Model the fold of this input.
Amino acid sequence: MWPSRSPPCSVCCVCRQRGASVRCHRRRCSRTFHYPCGRERGCVSQFFGEYRSFCWQHRPTQQVQPLRQQRPQCAICLEAVQGRPCYRTLICPSCTSAHFHRHCIQGQALRAALHHFRCPLCQDMQTFQAEMFRLGIKIPDRSAPTTTLQPPGPLPPPSHRTQLSPDPSRRDAAWEEEGAFNELYQRHNSCDASLCLCSLGRDYSNNTGPWRMLLCSSCASCGTHQRCSAIPEDAESWECSGCSGVGTAPSVSAPAQ
Done:
């Protein structure tokens, strides 16, 4: 995974234990570290192209001038952040007013994934993603790549390019995974009358006849059999008591003459 690997016997410059496998990509820098140790110390690992890693001294930094705020807050957790860019505080390069804790924006990137990750304040995607990639934020692509594309933003050198899916309509966000919201697509299909007259139960329904199921034309969360609420056979719609008005009887609309 890491192109700038060191021999397994390398000593971690953070914990001083052996087995460090990540080396700073900066020329003439000999620092090696374990990946978890590097994160704690402020090292940056990029998750695209050559998957380069940098120590705390040579890591990429932001060159943006954030808008002055009296009490800057993280746009995700709403807790206090530093008013200037640093390792633990990242700033949107587009609007320069959105501040983030590194761990907060990383969590958002893992949930939203490549095709939905954007600045939650200004909604910029292209410039924002390119900057987050550069600063070591991992933005997963959960869809199968089909062609060679580049990370959003200005094209990096050919050696830094990576495989990304070209279809922005791919459903790769955590909240769009298969089956995540199946219940939202289920249609209400039971009789909610105080006394259901159907011998086959409240869930039984026909397209026509006395056991035709009508849903409330306003909320669609209440239903009734035609006979259970004494609805005329030619009625086209029905409205429950909650939607027709407090203290009023359910309303029925008949077809126009």
The longest strand covers residues 89-91. Residues 157-169 have pLDDT under 50 and may be disordered.
